[in-house]
Amino acid sequence: MEQRNISIVLIGMMGTGKSTAGRWIAEQLGYEFVDLDHEIEVAAGKRIPDLFAEDGEPAFRDLESAVLAKVLSCSKRVIATGGGAVLSESNCELMKRQGWVAALTAGAESIVERVREDQGRPLLAGGDLELKVRTILEERKDCYRFADVTVDTTGISAEEAGRQILMHY
Ligand code: S3P
């Protein structure tokens, strides 16, 4: 496979398997894997639910943009972004300019099954999980369209999604 060096940026809704696919791709290419949510937690010195609860979502988004710019400054990385990193147009422009962008999608039912046991996502906490997932999917349906490639992960493993992404890289 031809090695392009440009960092791969994975975007997509929560529960589409960005982190698992990203780790697998990084291993195949010998690239460094970067989980944006983890880097945000390191920078903030607290977990994401605490960051949302104590400082609010706007503070989280500001930090997300700052950390994204920092991690995109190096090539040969696979960066798994948080599902909302695409809400900022300047983040999207930066991803396009500095990286090769792959979007992961999935149907609402698959997403609900994948995120059900995870307590770490404040936007999905409490209330009707399926309604929340469907609402956010609808709100963001156009936000992931700028990607260089899109892979539907419904019914396939994250590794298979990674394999499909690499076929286009
Ligand atoms: C968010 C997605 C999360 C995390 C935060 C907000 C979102 O990341 O960044 O809870 O707005 O979609 P994952 O997509 O990795 O779950």
UniProtKB/TrEMBL annotation:
CDD domains: SK. Keywords: Amino-acid biosynthesis, Aromatic amino acid biosynthesis, ATP-binding, Cytoplasm, Kinase, Magnesium, Metal-binding, Nucleotide-binding, Transferase. One of its GO terms (biological process) is aromatic amino acid family biosynthetic process. It comes from the Bacteria. ATP binds at residues 15-20, 121. Pathway: Metabolic intermediate biosynthesis; chorismate biosynthesis; chorismate from D-erythrose 4-phosphate and phosphoenolpyruvate: step 5/7. It is found in: Cytoplasm. Its cofactor is Mg(2+). Its main location: cytoplasm. Mg(2+) binds at residue 19. Substrate binds at residues 37, 61, 83, 140. GO terms for molecular function: ATP binding; magnesium ion binding; shikimate kinase activity. GO terms for cellular component: cytosol. Its EC number is 2.7.1.71. InterPro entries: P-loop_NTPase (IPR027417), Shikimate/glucono_kinase (IPR031322), Shikimate_kinase/TSH1 (IPR000623), Shikimate_kinase_CS (IPR023000). It is an enzyme of class 2 (transferase). Binds 1 Mg(2+) ion per subunit. It catalyses: shikimate + ATP = 3-phosphoshikimate + ADP + H(+). Monomer. PANTHER family: SHIKIMATE KINASE, SHIKIMATE KINASE 1, CHLOROPLASTIC. Belongs to the shikimate kinase family. Catalyzes the specific phosphorylation of the 3-hydroxyl group of shikimic acid using ATP as a cosubstrate. This is Shikimate kinase.
